[in-house]
Amino acid sequence: MDKQQAVREAAAAVLEHGGPECRTDPHQPLDAMGRAYDAGATDEDIRAEIARQRTA
């Protein structure tokens, strides 16, 4: 998995989790974020992708 794909996956997992509503297991977004970090992503990369997906 490349960095951009990992960032997209992490952002989608965070959005699907639903924040404080916890619609999914919290380990899902955390695991996805870990994979993105391992691929070289930064917090800012993931934040930007979350914002992009929210407006898409």
Describe this protein's structure.
There is one protein chain. Helices cover 71% and strands 0% of the residues. It has three helices and no strands. The protein has 56 residues and is mainly alpha-helical. The longest helix is centred in the first third of the chain and has 15 residues.
Run of helices and strands: HHH
For the secondary structure, the number of strands is 0
The whole-number mean of residue pLDDT values reads 92
Approximate shape: globular
**Helical residue percent band:** over 70%
Structural class: mainly alpha
Question: What portion of the residues fall into strands of 2 or more residues?
Answer: under 5%
Largest sheet: none
Quickly describe the structure.
The protein is mainly α. It is 71% helix and 0% strand.
Feature tags:
globular, mainly alpha, 56 residues, 3 helices
Write the layout of secondary structure elements.
Blueprint: H1 3-17, H2 27-38, H3 43-55
Helix pairs in contact: 1-2, 1-3
